[in-house]
Amino acid sequence: MRKQDLTYWLFLMPVLAALVLVVIAPLLLGVYYSFTDWNGIQTKGFVGFDHYKALFQDKRFLDSLWFTIKFSIVSIILINLIGLSLALLVTAKLKTNKALRTIFFMPNLIGGLILGFIWQFIFTKAFAGFGSLVGIESLKGWLSTPNTGFWGLVILMSWQMSGYIMVIYIAYLEGVSSELIEAAEIDGANAFQRFRHIVFPLVAPAFTVSMFLTLSNTFKLYDQNLSLTGGGPYNSTQMVAMEIFNTAFGRYEMAYGQAKAVIFFIIVAVIALLQVYLSKKREVEM
Amino acid sequence: MRKPYLIPLEVLGIFLALLWLAPFYLMIVNSLKTKREIFEDTLSPPSKVTFDNYVQAFMELDFLKTFANSVFITVVSVVIIILFSSMAAYALSRVKSKFSTFIFFVFVAAMLIPFQSVMIPLITIFGKFDMLNRGGLIFMYLGFGASLSIFLYHGALNSIPKTLDEAAIIDGANKFQVFWYIIFPMLKPITVTVAILNTIWIWNDYLLPSLVINQQGMETIPLKMFFFFGEYTKQWHLALAGLTLAIIPVIVLYFFAQREIIKGVSDGAVK
Fold first, then answer.
1. Percentage of the residues of chain B whose pLDDT score is greater than 90
2. I want to staple B46 with a disulfide (CB 3.0 to 4.6 A). Which of A168, A198, B33, B55 is the partner?
3. A12, A38, A224: best mutation site toward chain B, by most B Cβ within 10 Å?
4. What's residue B55's pLDDT?
5. Which of A2-6, A119-123, B169-173 has the highest mean pLDDT?
6. So what's the ipTM on this one?
7. A92 and B100 in contact by Cβ < 8 A?
8. Do B177 and B168 touch, CB atoms closer than 8 A?
9. Torsion angle of the four alpha carbons A213, A215, A219, A223, in this order, in degrees rounded to the nearest 10
10. Before A233, cis peptide (omega within 30)?
């Protein structure tokens, strides 16, 4: 097959057309619209950087950005800690390890929207029921304050994604040869030393993959945010994805919403490129 | 030889597994109670099991129809993604040119673009040309799903030697035959991964269908669930029965194909 061949183009065309029409053209048009007064139907003229200037004074947007950053940092740490611990647990030679993997991974197959609704019940009804049973007042009224809304989202995401991250760590942990570990054991290395000096360096690449996946999943979160808290109370748990949606489709400020979407894209792209750069650098050093 | 330190770990594992399952347990237990009993006590098992909630939720969700809609959109989209992504990856891996490298780079780079960044123009433009609903949705899934699928196929194709293609051409096969009868069957393991990853994503997707599907009777499960929940927001007995119905198909599938699913998800992430 050569580039001039018709088959080359026939094979390439369907996906290329879809990518251009669905992703690339809307992205470029979106950047253009963000500098105009586009209202979803027509454009009357350019407004320059007005939307971008307004956006950095927009408390609602800045609050949602700050909430998203806080939420992502806390979730990434917890999900990776729990995910790695679960992976270490189920790769120890337990009788139940197959069943445990199945159970821990299960939430990932169910849509975020549905998981959010289930947890809304757990937090508002079951927590309250448990609270009055054991006499802990603070278990009542969950999701009705910004703080419990924040931790509600963190708990939901940790419960859901830890099993996913566990699967990734398992893939690397199972590559660590048991002979190597037994040799170290004979040489007198204790469990902590074996983990620190043998297992840890070998699973280090898993950290890069897991960080990237958790970051991308938490930073762009929408479904769980919508179904668990709906952004409330008083928009205090509204993340950037939802804020963009509400600006455009709730308040019909199309061009302004699109300017927020462009900033969102830039942040996500910079984080991703930074991550690729750092992991490449580390691989070279190792 | 079983080591003594494994026993506390076994206990810990079982405890954590029960903790992980607790939300599902509470959902099912309460879906079998009356509205009043949920209000009085959420933690105990039902004093008298009732399936009335399920009957009502099943009808309100128009469950068979909604389920069929989800199956249709997911299956058609995944088949189209598999066919066209594998073909494109084949073309890109067999023609080594600057152009191919560039196109491959564009597909990989497109994975970084968050949906929210293209959503507003995408929906307004497709709406203007009257290309929403099922057909438009499936085409959009191809656009959003192609990147990762091409990336995975490309990696697998690079390990299949080109001499195989050339030998088949000498034997008189044309390029389509080479691909469909020789190369595509060799890609089966990666096809399973591509199918699993795209199925999980499309089956559970809410935001895109919520923007694209505006005809009544076309709703997928997540979409219908959202309306249903909004309508019965303080009526947990119905909401929980509906949620349980919505996840039963997924759990059944998981039960039969858990090894393939976990392997597919892990391969897709690690590669």
1. 68
2. B33
3. A12
4. 95
5. A119-123
6. 0.92
7. no
8. yes
9. 40
10. yes
Q: Higher-confidence residue: A194 or A284? A: A194
How big is the CA angle at B94 (ends B92 and B96), to the nearest 5 degrees? 75
Do the beta carbons of residue A83 and residue A165 sit within 8 Å?
yes
pLDDT band at residue B47, thresholds of 50, 70 and 90? Answer: confident
- Chain A partners of B45 at a C-beta cutoff of 8 Å? none
Q: How confident is the model at residue B230, as a pLDDT?
A: 85
Q: Is B244 helix (H, G, I), strand (E, B) or coil?
A: helix
Domain harbouring A54, CATH code: 1.10.3720.10
Of A146, A119, A148, the closest CA to residue A64 belongs to A146
Name the band, by pLDDT with cuts 50, 70 and 90, for residue B205. Answer: very high
Q: What is the mean pLDDT of residues B136-164?
A: 94
Nearest 5°: phi and psi at B244? -65, -45
**Residue B127 CB burial class (10 angstroms; 0-12, 13-18, ≥19):** middle
Q: Which domain holds residue A102?
A: 50-285
On whether the CB atoms of residues B243 and A117 are closer than 8 A, the answer is yes
How much is the average pLDDT of A162-190? 86
- Domain span at residue B72? 53-270
Size of interface A-B (CB pairs under 8 A): 260
Buried b (16+ CB within 10 A) or exposed e, B21-38: eebbebbebbbbbeeebb
Q: Which of B35, B163, B153, B17 is nearest to B88 (CA)?
A: B153
Task: Count the domains in chain A.
Answer: 1
CB-CB under 8 Å, A262 with B106: no
Q: What share of chain B is helix, strand, coil (3-state, %, to 5)?
A: 80, 0, 20
Does residue A129 lie within any of the structural domains? yes
DSSP string, B121-151: HHHHHHHHTT--HHHHHHHHHHHHHHHHHHH
Task: Supply A233's token pair.
Answer: 């109370």
Decide if B142 touches A, using CB distance below 8 A.
yes
The CATH number of residue B87's host domain is 1.10.3720.10
Contact B157, B90 (CB under 8 A): yes
